[in-house]
Amino acid sequence: MSSTGGRSQGGKIIGEAIGSGAVRVGPVTNIDERAHESLCGFSRLQARLHGAELLDEPGIVAFRGPIDFPAARLAIRSGTALAPAAFSDAVEEFFLSAGRTAAVYVRADTDAATHQELLARGFVEYSRSPEMVCEARLEDCALPNGVDVRLATTADDVRAYAEIAGHAFRHLSIPEEITRATIDHPDVMLDPSVAIALAELDGRPVAGACSIMMGERAGYVGWVACLDDARGRGLGDVVTRRVTNEAIGRGASLVSLEASPFGESTYARMGYREIYRYATLIKF
């Protein structure tokens, strides 16, 4: 099993020249498979942003960041090239040879065998998250009083977004410094294939989201976040709607995301629909 450093490897992020990280996309047409491949692509991007070691081989995509914490050490079963036991062997070899923690995303509907294999090896289920998709432009909505929304254009904008996301993702038990350090990379996050929407309340950035083009026809939405003191104004809807429509406008016929418990009902009201769920299994 070989791994490649996410910073040193020349390549593309799902067909867009966004920098380092090997990416391969096959001719997948099934919506479930396209959404799953977008998550794999997002994981490759995270490897670069974390400065992580990337394992990208048939059947597995995984990155191992410099911090020994599950949010920085994630694996996905990317296909059926590895049987559940072989995939679990690869997970343990990659993560536990250089640390104690790991996180694995497993399709809850189609990969029960891998789920059971990991449980038998001491992983525990941390959460289940719906995979949700949107296939058409969302209707524009009126902005709340005092709110403006715009796309990020500067390094300061990216830093503001990183601060917002770091603060918000503490509620998912992710240390603030991990999220902040992951996102605060203007060289990547201001690439033309990435759109960051910032919502400002009375001129202060208080919410954000990003979409990333995963090839010519797919988009991925991530890091939807809002500061605590700005909650209750529908700003998660505002920024998610903006980056979803940016991706659709750039040619995506499918936009996907994994919803947290905080955002699931919002995305459903907007027009996203659930196609399956991921179980997140972790080891400490």
Explain what this protein looks like in three dimensions.
The protein is an alpha+beta fold. The protein has helices spanning about 30-50, 85-95, 110-120, 155-170, 175-185, 185-190, 235-250, 265-270, and strands at about 5, 10-15, 15-20, 55, 60-65, 75, 100-105, 125-135, 145-150, 195-200, 205-215, 220-225, 255-260, 275-284. It is about 30% helix and about 30% strand. α2 (about 85-95) packs across α3 (about 110-120) and α4 packs antiparallel against α5.
Q: Numbering strands along the chain, what is their spatial order in the largest sheet?
A: 1-4-5-6-7-14-8-13-12-11-10-9
Please, what is the average pLDDT?
Answer: 90
Low-confidence stretches: 1-26
The biggest beta sheet is recorded as: 12 strands, mixed
Index terms:
284 residues, two-stranded antiparallel ribbon, alpha+beta, 2 domains, twelve-stranded mixed β-sheet, disordered N terminus, 14 strands, Aminopeptidase, 8 helices
What's the gist of this structure?
The protein is α+β, with helices and mostly antiparallel strands and 284 residues long. The protein contains eight helices and 14 strands.
List the helices and strands and how they pair.
Elements: E1 4-5, E2 10-13, E3 16-20, H1 31-50, E4 53-57, E5 60-64, E6 73-76, H2 84-96, E7 102-107, H3 112-120, E8 124-134, E9 147-151, H4 155-168, H5 176-183, H6 186-189, E10 194-201, E11 204-213, E12 218-226, H7 235-249, E13 254-258, H8 264-270, E14 273-283
Parallel strand pairs: 6-7, 12-13
Antiparallel strand pairs: 1-4, 2-3, 4-5, 5-6, 7-14, 8-13, 8-14, 9-10, 10-11, 11-12
